[in-house]
Every structure is written in C-alpha cells, then in structure tokens.
Design brief:
The chain is mainly alpha-helical. It has 37 helices and eleven strands. α24 links the parallel β10 and β11 (654-660).
C-alpha cells in the first residue's frame, strides 16, 4: 500500500499510520501461520489467547485480564513456555522492521509532496544558517575542516546474532517491495517469500550457545558496512553537495565537490582492551586485516563493474594523455580493447588492487586479475588513478558517465582508504602505571614508581621523555602484562605502516585522574617507536593521547587536568604537530552510575564549559568524544537533539560519538534508515557549529540564572540517588534479586565480562549491564531516579509559583534542559511499575523488598508530578505522538515476555545451586525473553 500524498497535505485526511498497522498485521499473521504450521494448533491457540488477553489488559486496564494472564503463564509447560517466549520475541523484531519501513515511507511521502525540509536534514540546517546570515565561504570552511565520526563499539548489550540480522534484512526488503505497484502474481510471490523468511527466522537459533569472540564482534560490525556505510556514506556526500548548491549556488550550476572526508568511521572492536582480556595485538591485526579485506572487496567489485560499463572508444571520443598513459601501463594486452583506454586502465587498476588486497591479508579474491601488477603503496595512489579517469571523462564529453559509480568509488576511496575505519586503542590508567613501574624498576631508574606522589610521577615521566635512551631492554625478562602492552603498541606502529596513518590514530585512557596518567602513555609510545625525536629536536607523535573522564570527580577535574597538561612545553609542541587539535572523551555511563541521571548530565555540561574555556585560552581546538550508550541513563536519546543541546563552543565542526550494542542494529541495519541517521549527525554538527550565538546581555544573564538553578537541583538529585544506590542497606541484594543481572552476565552477549571484578559491588559492575538490567525489569531507574526529590525539595524551599515559573522558563528557552526532560519523558513512557512490582517479588526478604520498592515508587510518583508541573503535559510523550503510539502498541507484546521472564527466573533460581537440577530449557527461555524485551524496548544498553 502506498501512502497517499493527500494524507500529508491534509492532516484530516487518510490515517498516516494505516500502512504501518497493515504491515504489523501482515507480519503478525505470517508469524501466526508459521507458528501454527511448526508448533501445532494448540501452541498457536495459547499464544493467541495470551496476546488477546494482554491487549485487553493494556487497553482497558482490566484487572480480570491481569489475573487471567497471570494464571495462563503459570500453567504453561516448559515446551509451551519456550514457544510463547520465541513467538513474542520475534513479534517485537518484526514490529521493529515494520516501524523502520514506515519511517522510510513517511520520509519519501514528504519528499514526493514537496514538503518543507524536515528538521534534522542538512537541507533544513542550511536554510536556518542562510537565514541567520551565515555565508557560503563559512559553510565551505566548515566542511573542509570538520571531523564527524560515529565510532562502532562492541558492548554486551548486542543480543542479536548475525544470522537473525540477515533474515530480518531480507524481510525489510520484501516489505518495502510491497509499496511498489505489483501485479497479482508478483504480490503473491512476495508474500510467499515473506512467509519463507519468517519461517527461516523461526527455525534459526536466536541465541549463541558459545561465548562471542572478538573476531565474531568484528564480523558483526563489518556487516553494517556492507549493508549501509560503503554506499550510503558516499551517497550522503553527494546529497549534501546538492543541498549546498541549492542554497548558495547558481541556478542549474553543477554542485561544487567537497574533497575533504568530513565524515569518517571509527571502531573500538579489536582495539578496546579496557576490561577485556580477550583483546591483544593479534586481535588488532585481525581487525585491520578484516577491515581491509572488506573495503578492498568493495573496491574490486566496483572496479570490475566499471570495466564493463566504461566501454568508451577512442574511435568515438578522445581521452586525456594521462588516461592513455594509465591504459598503456595496464596489464591488459588484448587487441580487442586497444581502442578502449578506460577499460584497459581499469583492468590495470583492478590488478593493482588485487595485489594490494593480497599484500594486506585478503585471500578470497573472487575474480582473477589479468597479468601481474605491483600493489598500490597506499589508498591515495588508488584514488589518484580514479581521479585520472574522472578528469579525462570530464574533459571529453563524458561528465555524465562519472556518476554514479566512478564518483562514488572515488569518494569511498577518500573516506575509507585501505583501512575502512580508524581503530581506537583503549586501556585503563591502572595498567599503564603498573607497566611503567616495572620498566622503571628493572631499568634501575625508580624502585617504586607507583608509590610516588603526583608531582614526583609527572617530573619523572617528563625527565624520561627528554631522554634519548629507552627503559626497555630485550635482555631483561618482564611480566606477561608488561610484555603484552608493549607488544600491542608495537603492533599499532606496524599497522599504521601497513594500512596508513588513519588506521590507528587515537589512544584513549580510561579512568584519567591526573596529568601523569596522560604522560605515562607518551612514555610508552616513546618506548615503542610511536613517539620519536626529529633531527631538529622536536618530537613527532603517532597516536593522539586522549583522556577519558568518566566518574563525577573525574569530570570535575577534567578542565584542570587539561590546563596543566597543555601548559607543558613538550605537550604543547606535540599538539601543534596534531594541527592544534586535541580530543577529550567524556563518559556518560560511569558518571550516571556514580551520581545519577540528572547530576551526570549536569556535570558533563559543566565539564564541557570548563574545557571550552581552557582550550580557548591555550589556543587549541577542542574535539569532544561523547561515550554515549543506548539508554538515556548512558547518554542515549536522539543524537540530533543531544548535539544541539551542547554548550556553545563545544562542537565547532569536531565531534566523535560511540554507537553501541543493539543501537547499531537499530540505526544502521537498514540502508535508508542508516543514511538518515548519518545525515542527522552532520546536520546537528553543522547547526551547532555555525548558528550565531546570542550576543544579548539579557540572554547571557538568563542562561547564568538557569545554570545556577541547575547546580542547586543537581546537588539535591545527587544526594537522593546516592542515598538509594550506595547508602541504603541491602540495596545491592535488592538489585541482584529484582533484576535479571545474574542471568544477563551468563548470556553470551559479548566478549567483555559484565563486571570489572568478581564482586557484587555496584562500584565494580560495568555501567552497561547495570542499565541493561533496569531496562529488562521495566524500571529504567538510571534514566530518572532523583529528579522528583530534587525538583520537589527545591520548589518547597522557595515561593512555589515563582520557582515553577522559572523551571518552565528553563524548559522553554534552554535546549539543554528541554532535552534532559524530553529524554526522561521517553524513559518514563517505557517504565511500568506494575511489571516492575512482579520483579520485586523475586526478592526473598519481604522487609527489604517492601522498603526499597516503596522508595522507588514514591520517587517515581514525585518525578511524574514534577515533570508534569514543568511541561504541562499529563500524558507521556505528548510532543512525540508517533513514538508514544509506537511504545504503547508494543507494550501488549512485551508484557507477556516480562511475566514469563519472572516466572522462568523463579524456576531457575530455585534450583540454581543444586548440582544437576538446572533445566537448560528454562535457562534458554530466560535468555530468549531477555532478547525479546531488548528488541521491544530498542534502546536498552
């Protein structure tokens, strides 16, 4: 069904969501057909009865329906339970596919109707900028200098197997096909294929039975390049050039090409060692080998196809001397192509690419090249050959042949090189300190480096950086840890030499607390040839040393640490060598776990303001790397709004941000959705960087007042959050009992352990499973707890109406505060206390259960009341009805999964400590329910 244009032009016309409802009904019906055929009529009847009862419970708040639902779930056999869990889990997956397709459909309908540019598009951003008086040269300079980098990370919230993703990709393609005009036979064939792919899903194992390896994570990430990034990123560049031409160019003029690769991909997968003992030098080499193979496969396929397409003959049209020379140097000697220089040149390019692929580790080249050729020295040489083809075509009546394939291939070469994505290295500061302590001790320089105070450490490290000799000796035996860390850094040097400087260029230090934490990595780079002294006495640094400030105290120290670091002459000289740029990473997860949602958000904002001031004083360009997760509690929420809510001066065309876990699948498993998400990043960065700041003193005074109120509220929220999580006796026991954290830790979600240490302390638990667990039990506590206490007490300490008016003013005129409330509103829309109360019954101690759950429910009520009093909205997501409907629609299918999960956890835990009593089917059912709930909530980790 095609959405009629009239539905957009006339809001009172056709139901714009009718096609979505139809798609969901269709996929639900197909799943039902498969369930009936595969599991039998009885199981189908059970699932359908549970579905209808859950819908009735949600729609009518029917207490009888709740009792019926509870009773039905309790009497299910183990076999029925697994089938019901799988059915509702797969329905969540299929509903997601339908929603994504509807987003694409609505966007296309807007474009077909000639609607105004939508917010979040580059077209919209350019219109705003031009209206604000921002000139063409300013926009051009932005794109010349910008770096916008989504960084894919592997974290233990990715609950989908690649086999499932592949099947779902096919279903999405077939569903999109149904919007086209199809003959009855074509529609029937489409339906048959859809049913077969749904059946494939049902017969495919949803869970991993073995622990995910780093190599598996690398392959999973690479699948998104094939689906989305390799074609959509170059295509996005073309769209943006056309948008700029539309706003700033001459009518009918060809868009000006932007040569700079302003959007580049990054990755942590294979280079992030923090808390992951499975990452080492071998995984780094493997990551780059697989990345290079992926991009070179793409280049080889496109070059081969170009050879077939560019059949241009010199008997018809001339070519440039440079192109003729490239053709003459080719490995092709066939007389049949003597007058086809483009084909001959491409045969030579293909041969050189194939040689390059083999040299970089690829072994599965599908098409044999013609003749022998030397590999390219680097990707720039390959791009230069492609430019020779482009220049010749443009000069000889062939400009229309450049697009789409040749121009796209050249653009891809500029963006991806031979490395595909820059691999970041990350390690915790504690390990660096231990390695340096051993090196200093065994070199006879300092017996106990770790015992020195900060000034002494920094002094010793600076003295070492001034030394021409190394601490390391090949004739001394070192610990495994020291040997491994030095080997990894040496591998980084080799990788850069082999794949290019962009292959690895960043070294991130977790738990940066002092200047010495940064200097230690400089010394380690010096030990491994990554920091070298030039003939003129200056130093050259290969890997930018990037601090990661994570906890609340770390964020509060961030500006001071960077000010002291950049004041050091050696460091200042190294920054100059980096183009007067320096990156700082901010961690959202640990600061949230440490201080709660509101305080974490505020401390991040304050840290950014402090860094802007320090960097401006030093004359260095600041690039912030935002370590955002999926949940709001981990910095999640719409990226577009988050970037626009950044303090002025923190973006400036430079931004990196992590894309983690199942959020990667949500954003990039569909090519069109992926392109839209990439465009959102560019549009937001463009707006945040170039929109003129208000110069009115009244506006500045207003902002200062808003910030003062926020500081007071943050202090109160921090105390409320800490009082519950860290100061309430028994809270840890409550958390480990009332959430599926123990079961999540057992699930083969990723290669990284759920906890940094083998303890039950909240402090040692990784922030990702912490947030994931609260999502599963539908409390999502890290995304809202403390807000009600903070706002309520602040209002009570003054004149109520006056203070409420101030908060409403903040919501209306301060993007930071508006975004904070919007994200919390989304979390509260997904929170369900009735479901959460079922999980609380897993806590055996009735007194503990009642005491803590009562505090949580009271804070939830306070938070809702305070949010409503500020925004005036009594319904959740009143400003985003599409998302509100989406969440509401899927609750009826999530509820049974949550109820079943509680029942299965009860069964599992009742025998978990009795050898031989654990039922693997029950265990598997829990993990299937975790998958289904995660898919239904979408941003869980």
């Amino acid at each position: 069904m095609v959405t009629p244009v009239s539905a957009i032009e006339d809001p009172a016309g056709a139901d714009k969501d009718a096609p979505l409802k139809e798609d969901i009904r269709l996929l639900g019906r197909l799943l039902g057909d498969v369930l009936r055929a595969q599991e039998g009529e009885d199981v189908y009847a059970v699932v359908e009865t549970i579905r209808q009862t859950a819908v009735r419970f949600r729609r009518d708040a029917d207490s009888d329906a709740a009792k019926e639902l509870d009773g039905m779930l309790k009497i299910l056999t183990r076999e029925q339970t697994i089938s019901v869990v799988r059915a509702f889990s797969y329905f969540s997956h299929l509903a997601n596919i339908a929603e994504d397709q509807h987003h694409i459909r609505r966007r296309r309908a807007h474009l077909l109707a000639g609607s105004k540019p939508q917010q979040g598009s580059v077209n919209f951003a350019l219109g705003k900028l031009r209206q604000a008086g921002v000139g063409e040269e300013t926009v051009a300079a932005f794109f010349r200098d910008a770096l916008i980098s989504p960084v894919l990370t592997a974290h233990p919230t990715e609950v989908q197997r690649k086999s499932i993703l592949d099947a779902e990709h096919d279903i999405a393609r077939l569903l999109a096909e149904r919007d086209l005009p199809l003959t009855p036979k074509e529609r029937a064939a489409n339906l048959h294929l859809l049913r077969s792919r749904v059946a494939t899903l049902w017969q495919t194992r949803m869970l991993r039975y073995s622990k995910l390896t780093v190599a598996d994570e690398i392959e999973n990430a690479l699948s998104y390049y094939r689906i989305t990034f390799l074609r959509e990123l170059p295509g996005l560049y073309d769209d943006i050039e056309a948008d700029i031409a539309a706003h700033y160019g001459e009518p009918e003029a060809e868009p000006k090409r932007i040569a700079a690769p302003y959007v580049q991909m990054g990755s942590w997968i294979g280079g992030d060692r923090d808390g992951n003992p499975n990452v080492n030098a071998a995984t780094m080499r493997h990551a780059l080998e697989r990345q290079a193979t992926t991009i070179l496969d793409f280049y080889l396929d496109e070059t081969h196809t170009l050879g077939a397409e560019l059949s241009v003959s010199t008997l018809m049209v001339k070519c440039s001397p440079a192109l003729q020379a490239l053709a003459d140097a080719s490995t092709d000697t066939s007389d049949h192509r003597s007058d086809e220089p483009y084909r001959r040149a491409l045969i030579g390019i293909y041969a050189r690419l194939a040689a390059s692929a083999r040299a970089l580790g690829a072994t599965n080249i599908l098409r044999k090249e013609v003749g022998h050729a030397e590999p390219y020295p680097d990707a720039a040489a390959f791009a230069a050959d492609l430019q020779t083809l482009i220049d010749s075509l443009n000069a000889h009546h062939g400009a229309m042949l450049v697009k789409p394939r040749l121009a796209t291939l050249k653009r891809a070469a500029d963006i991806f090189g031979f490395h595909l994505a820059s691999l970041d290295m990350r390690q915790t500061s504690d390990i660096h300190e231990r390695v340096l302590a051993e090196l200093f001790a065994k070199a006879g320089v300092e017996a106990d480096y770790a015992a020195l105070d900060e000034d002494a450490k920094a002094g010793l490290l600076l003295a070492e950086l001034a030394q021409p000799r190394l601490l390391y000796s090949p004739y001394i035996e070192y610990s495994d840890e020291t040997g491994s860390e030095l080997t990894i850094l040496r591998a980084a040097r080799e990788i850069r030499q082999r794949y290019g400087a962009r292959a690895i260029r960043n070294y991130i230090i977790s738990h940066t607390e002092t200047v010495s934490d940064l200097l230690e990595v400089l010394v380690l780079q010096q030990e491994t040839g990554l920091l070298r002294r030039n003939a003129d006495g200056s130093s050259a640094l290969d890997l930018m040393v990037i601090p990661l400030f994570e906890t609340i105290p770390d964020l509060q120290r961030a500006a001071g640490i960077m000010e002291a670091m950049m004041a050091l002459p050696l460091v200042r000289q190294l920054i100059t060598g980096q183009g007067e740029e320096q990156e700082v990473m901010l961690g959202y997860s640990d600061s949230n776990k440490d201080g709660g949602f509101l305080t974490s958000t505020w401390e991040l904002y304050k840290a950014e303001l402090g860094l802007v001031e320090v960097f401006a004083k030093a004359g260095v360009k600041l690039r912030l790397f935002h370590g955002r997760g999926g949940t709001v509690g981990r910095g999640g929420g719409p990226s577009y709004d988050a970037i626009l809510a950044q303090p002025k001066g923190t973006v400036n065309g430079q931004i990196r941000l992590t894309e983690q876990g199942e959020i990667i699948a949500s954003k990039f498993s569909n090519a069109e959705i992926g392109r839209r998400n990439l465009e959102l990043l560019v549009a937001a960065t463009l707006e945040a960087s170039l929109m003129p700041a208000s110069t009115e003193s009244a506006k500045r005074a207003q902002l200062a007042g808003f910030e003062a109120v926020m500081a007071e509220i943050s202090d109160r929220a921090y105390k409320a959050y800490r009082a519950l999580v860290y100061e309430t006796p028994g809270f840890t026991d409550y958390f480990f009992s009332a959430t599926p954290i123990a079961e999540i830790a057992e699930l083969n979600l990723g290669s990284r352990p759920a906890s940094r240490k083998s303890t039950r302390r909240i402090e040692d638990l990784r922030a990702i499973p912490w947030g994931f667990s609260w999502g599963q039990c539908r409390l999502l506590l890290p995304g809202w707890y403390g807000f009600g206490s903070a706002i309520g007490s602040w209002i009570a300490d003054g004149e109520r109406e006056e203070r409420l008016a101030q908060l409403r003013d903040m919501h209306a005129h301060w993007p930071f505060f508006a975004t904070l409330l919007s994200n919390m509103d989304m979390v509260l829309a997904k929170t369900d206390l009735a479901i959460a109360s079922r999980y609380s019954l897993l806590v055996q101690d009735a007194e503990l259960r009642g005491r803590i759950f009562k505090r949580i429910t009271e804070e939830h009520a306070n938070t809702l009341a305070c949010l409503e009093s500020i925004t005036g909205a009594t319904e959740r997501l009143a400003g985003n009805p599409l998302l509100a409907r989406s969440i509401q629609n899927r609750f009826a299918y999530l509820d049974p999964l949550n109820h079943l999960q509680v029942e299965l956890i009860k069964r599992h835990r009742s025998v978990a400590h009795e050898p031989g009593k654990v039922d693997e089917r029950v265990h598997r059912g829990i993990h299937l329910s975790i998958n289904g709930v995660a898919a239904g909530l979408r941003n869980t980790g």
